[in-house]
Amino acid sequence: MSKVNGQTLAASRSRSFCARALSNTLRSAASTALLLTATANAQDKPVETGRDLVEDLHTAFGEHHARAVHAKGIILEGRFEPTSAARALSRAPLFEHGTPIIVRFSNFTGFPNIPDNDPGANPRGMAVKFGSPTNPLLDIVTHNFDGFPTRTATEFGALLRAIGTSGPGVAAPTPLDGFLATHPDAKTFLTTQHPAPLSYATTAYFGVNAVTFTDRKGRARPVRYRFVPAAGEHYFGTGAGPAPDYLQPEIAKRVKDGPVRFDWYAQLGERGDLLEDPSIAWPPSRKLVKLGTITIAVLAANTAEADRALTFLPGRMPDGIAAADPMLAIRTEAYPVSFGERQ
Predict the structure, then answer these.
(1) Of 58, 64, 70, 183, which is the active-site residue?
(2) 3-state per-residue secondary structure call for the chain
(3) Is the pLDDT score of 35 beyond 50?
(4) Mean pLDDT for the stretch of residues 53-66
(5) Tens-place pLDDT, residues 163-185
(6) Which of the following CATH numbers is that of domain 3-341: 3.40.50.740, 3.40.50.360, 3.30.1490.20, 2.40.180.10?
(7) Is 65 a catalytic residue?
(8) 164-170: long-range contacts at Cβ-Cβ below 8 A with a sequence spacing of 24 or more?
(9) Is the pLDDT confidence value at 34 over 50?
């Protein structure tokens, strides 16, 4: 198969897997047995390293010498100003004073040219680097869905392989049917995404992996991140939809007209909240502490070279912030693998 045809087939898989998930049903006892067999086959390979995860992403989305996921994106720059509440919650140095930031908004999947109005472009991503590329303090990678499709990296790898082997022409029940039949959180993730946002600046973003904040007295508290847009949350309705490539021109114009702001919050975990299961959102009653405001004011150069050179490591954290979810370790291993492949 040629590279172009392979990319076309992979893109077709991406565009259709959400729609297929909507119609996923168990048709009979025989179908149930087939689904369980497909699920078992999809889960027999553990994800133990970052390279394992990147290979599974390629199975789902193909290899394009770009980011393995969230390939289509745009880079901007700005500044973070912390609150006194942040300093009380964590001794991390970035809460002591203002810090420059680099922000990359993106679409889901590993397809560099996926249309913005494609359902496979959800969830949208926002990655934030606090500090400079030569002196980074903290990297956060978020998306605009409060949750993750699976509990573990191994389950996520199985989902990706199921997507990659459930393309057009595959007989039902497909491997994806089998996976979703036994993983309701993954089905929820694939079938309850937001509509396309009016802008990258009009949707909230969630850091679904829990981390631990430690204050100057050594008191530790689990938190999850949330970025709330100052412009409010606004999405396209059921009428006229967006153009295929509207998001990058829109955010470029928006920033030219004035700064884009997000308030950064820590959602505080309480006893009984799951720290090692990103597929479960914490209850909405959990307290939110405002950590500060990020102000995005400048569009970066956005050359192909600049995008290839920029990487985010979810495990890069300063003293006062530590990983609580073990999935962060695999994710942090995967990003340099993807970085090396796109050079």
Answers:
(1) 70
(2) CCHHHHHHHHHHHHHHHHHHHHCCCCCCHHHHHHHHHHHHHHCCCCCCCHHHHHHHHHHHHCCCCCCCCCCCEEEEEEEEEECHHHHHHCCCHHHCCCEEEEEEEECCCCCCCCCCCCHHHCCCEEEEEEEECCEEEEEEEEECCCCCCCCCHHHHHHHHHHHHCCCCCCCCCCHHHHHHHHCHHHHHHHHCCCCCECCHHHCCEEEEEEEEEECCCCCEEEEEEEEEECCCCCECCCCCCCCCCCHHHHHHHHHHHCCEEEEEEEEECCCCCCCCCCCCCCCCCCCEEEEEEEEEEEECCCCHHHHHHCCCCCCCCCCCEEECCCHHHHHHHHHHHHHHHCC
(3) no
(4) 89
(5) 999 988 999 999 999 999 999 99
(6) 2.40.180.10
(7) no
(8) 164/10, 164/13, 164/56, 164/59, 164/60, 164/61, 165/42, 165/59, 166/13, 166/17, 166/20, 167/9, 167/12, 167/13, 167/16, 168/9, 168/12, 168/13, 168/16
(9) no
Place of tokens 């509509």: 195
Query: Of how many residues is the chain composed?
Result: 343
Other C-beta atoms lying within 10 Å of the C-beta of residue 221: 16
**What are the residue boundaries of the structural domains of the chain, listed by start?**
3-341
The predicted structure's pLDDT at residue 240? 66
pLDDT digits (tens, 9 = 90+) for 245-270: 999 999 999 999 999 999 999 999 99
Question: What six digits make up the tokens of 314?
Answer: 């979810």
**Predicted TM-score (pTM) above 0.90:** no
